[in-house]
Amino acid sequence: MISPSLHPEPARAKCQPRGRFAFGLTPRAIWLLAAGLLFALPGFFDARLSYTMLLWDALVLVGCLLDGSRLPAAHEIAIERSWSNAPALNSETEIELAVEHDAKTAIECRLVDDLPDALVAAPATQRLRVIPRVRAALRYKIEPRERGDAKAGAVYLRYASPLGLVEKWAVAPLEQTVRVYPALRQGEDQEIFLARGRQIELQLRQARERGLGRDFESLREYLEGDDLRDVCWTATARRGQLITRRYQTERSQPVWIVLDAGRLLQGRILEDERNAERSRPLEGVAPKPKPSNAAERRDYSKLDYACSTAVALAQLALYSGDRVALLVYGQHIQQRVLPGRGPTHLRQIVEALAQARAESSEADHLRATATLNRWQPRRSLILWITDLAETAMRPEVIDGAIQLLHRHVLLFVAMAQPDVQAIANARPRNVEQMFRASAAQELAMRRELLLARLREQGALTLDLDPAQLTSAVLNQYLKVKERAMV
C-alpha cells in the first residue's frame, strides 16, 4: 500500500475580497425591486398612488443594506482544503472543503475549487451552510486524468445570509502543488498475487539448494575436492582445522523495471471503463465480474499503463524479498532508482514514476542498455516495457534487448495498439477495408517475427493490450520466481 505521507498536505487560508467592490444584489433582491413596478399600475388612476412604488423600492434597498451589514467580512472567513488519499489515476480522490467564521449570522456559501485539467474536467459549484463558530465541511470526489505535478488554485466563494438579498465575493488563496501517481491495482487483486508470491517463497525455502550460488548458508569441515577459495580462514584459525563455507542459490535478486518514455509510448488508449480491467487473472483464479453500469470512458497513454504495471510489480517484488530498481529513459535518462528494499524505497519508485513524461522523439534504447549494464553488472531480472517501431530495418530496441540477454534474464513487453489489432481481426466489407486489414495484419506479423527472434535468444516476451499488461507481467514474474530462473 502507498504510505499516507504521499497525501497532499492540507491547505488553509483566510479569505480576501475579490476586488474593491466585492458585493452585489442577489437575483432575489432584483426581483423584489422589479415587483415594485406593480405598484405603478394604480398610478394611472391616481398619481398619488405611484409613490407606493418608490416606497416599496426604498424598503427593499434598506433591507439590502441591513442584510449586507450583517454579513461577515472576507478576512473573518477561513477555508481549508484537505485530501482523503494520494491522488492516482484510475481511482477516486475525495476532497474536503471546510469553512468557518466568527460572525453573528449563518451564511449560505457557494464555493468553486479551482483545480487544473489534470485533476478534473471542469470545476463544479458546491453549496454549504455555515453556522457561526462551527466548522462546516463538504466533500466531493474527483478522478485524476494525468500523472505528475498539478497546481491546484484558489477557492472562490460567494456567500449571503439566509435572507439572501446581498452576497459578497471572496477568494481563499489555497494554491498548492499536488502530485498525481500512477494507477494502483485494486486491493483484493493485489492480495491474490501477494499470497501466491508468499507461497512460492515458502516452496523455495523448503527446496533450498546448497553448493550453488554465492549466498552464505553454513560452515562445515573441509573435504577433499572443496575449492580452496571457499575456505574460511578465521574459522580455521579458531578451530585448528580447515573449515569451508557452504553456499546456496540466491533468493533475493535484483529486479530492474525499465520503461521506454519515447514517442511510441505517447499513444493513447480510449476504452469503456468496464473494459479497462480486462486483465488476465492469476492462473487458477476465476476472474471477478465487473459492474455492468460502469460506462465512463477514459483516455490514458501507454506510458500511464506502463507506470501502473511498474508500481504493481515493485510492490510484489519487494514483498517477495527482491531488490527493485527503476530506469525511465527517453533521449536521456529521466528517472533512476538503484536497487533497494523497504517502504521508503517503494515511495522513491512511486515518486519517480509519477514524474515520468513521454517525449516526442524516439528513445535512445542503446544508451539505456549501456547504462543499465554499467549499473547492474551482476545477473538480474529485467522487465522492459516498450513498443516496436514500424520501420523497414530492425528496430534499435531489439538490438539493445539482445545485448542484455548475454548477462540478464529479460522479460520484454511490447504494448500493442488495440485499434490496429481490431482492424486486423475485422472482416473487410469493401476494397478500402481489405487494404487496411492487410496492412494491419502485416504489422502484426512483423511484430511476431521480431519477438520470435528475441525468444530464440532466450528472452521472455509478451505482446498484449495495455489493459492486460499488469496481470500478465505479475503472472510472468511469479513464474520466473517459481522456476528460479535468475
Automatic annotation (TrEMBL):
<keyword id="KW-1133">Transmembrane helix</keyword>
<dbReference type="Pfam" id="PF01882">
    <property type="entry name" value="DUF58"/>
</dbReference>
<keyword id="KW-0472">Membrane</keyword>
<dbReference type="InterPro" id="IPR002881">
    <property type="entry name" value="DUF58"/>
</dbReference>
<feature type="transmembrane region" description="Helical">
    <location>
        <begin position="21"/>
        <end position="41"/>
    </location>
</feature>
<protein>
    <recommendedName>
        <fullName>DUF58 domain-containing protein</fullName>
    </recommendedName>
</protein>
<keyword id="KW-0812">Transmembrane</keyword>
<feature type="domain" description="DUF58">
    <location>
        <begin position="219"/>
        <end position="261"/>
    </location>
</feature>
<feature type="domain" description="DUF58">
    <location>
        <begin position="294"/>
        <end position="396"/>
    </location>
</feature>
<feature type="region of interest" description="Disordered">
    <location>
        <begin position="276"/>
        <end position="297"/>
    </location>
</feature>
